[in-house]
Amino acid sequence: MAKEVKRRSLYGEAWRRLKKNKLALVGMGFIALLMIISIATIVIDLVTNKSFYDNHVIKQNLRGRLQGPSREHIFGLDEFGRDIFFRMLWGTRYSLFMGMFAIAFSTIVGGVLGAIAGYYGKIRDNVIMRFMDILLAIPSMLLATAIVAALGTSLVNVLIAIAISYIPTFARTVRASVLTIKDQEYIEAARALGASDARIIFKYIIPNSLSPLIVQATLGVAGAILSIAGLSFLGLGIQPPTPEWGSMLSNARSYIREAWHITVIPGLGIMLTILALNVMGDGLRDALDPRLKN
Questions:
Q1: Residue 227 contacts residue 165 (beta carbons within 8 Å)
Q2: What percent helix, strand, coil does the chain show, rounded to 5?
Q3: CB 189: neighbour CB atoms within 10 A?
Q4: Burial 150-174 (b: 16+ CB within 10 A, else e)
Q5: Treating both helix axes as pointing N-terminal to C-terminal, what angle do 98-120 and 122-136 enclose, rounded to 10 degrees?
Q6: Stated pTM of the model
Q7: How far, in Å, CA of 248 to CA of 87, rounded?
Q8: Which of 27, 52, 140, 280 shows the smallest number of beta carbons within 10 Å?
Q9: Largest Cα–Cα distance in the chain?
């Protein structure tokens, strides 16, 4: 008797293949852990009215400055005697969530612009993509630095700078997908039934372009975290005493010979997060690639 073959959706099949990639699952688990930590720190601040933050994250103990890791302070104390363990935990939400929010904005704006350029072509395509080419001609870090320097150093301005610098990447990704989708039979059928251009773009084209967009967004978060850390390292990002990993690394570089832990621990946090996002992005790329289905 022939065995019944269970049909799976595109994303169900992708999840089945992703589960076989153990390294990608480890990266996904690590990012999930960081998100739980980030949410927990927000809840703690709301419940304690930031008293825990004031007493454990930014409270200074100058007598114990540069103290190494110990039972009392797992990661040691920084140059102002602040607990590095709690600062790393609270810094997670700034590094991770800021990267995610910036890339989410870039994905939405870049995705819409790329879909319009690819669907309509001709003049609209030329205008949108030539503007994207201008932005791509400027290194993303240099562009973000220029925007922050012009607007001023603040959390919102850093997010705006990072988001703008990544819009061209997503616009080009979606445009390439749309060019291969817009002439498919189901698009012609929707057009013949009288569907508007907006309906075709948002209901049919963009959802079918999500696979490469998801992969690009995952890898983009890693790049955004590095950019945020770089801006903070240059003094143009989040300002002290806010515990952001790049800012912690920048402030600690003068003491690298006296106390290795205050530079190694933030740097290790950035490295492990970027590594986890990269292996997760690679796993998603392999899982969502229809050419690897068999």
A1: yes
A2: 75, 0, 25
A3: 11
A4: eeebeeebbbbbbbbbbbbbbbbbb
A5: 150
A6: 0.81
A7: 9
A8: 52
A9: 78
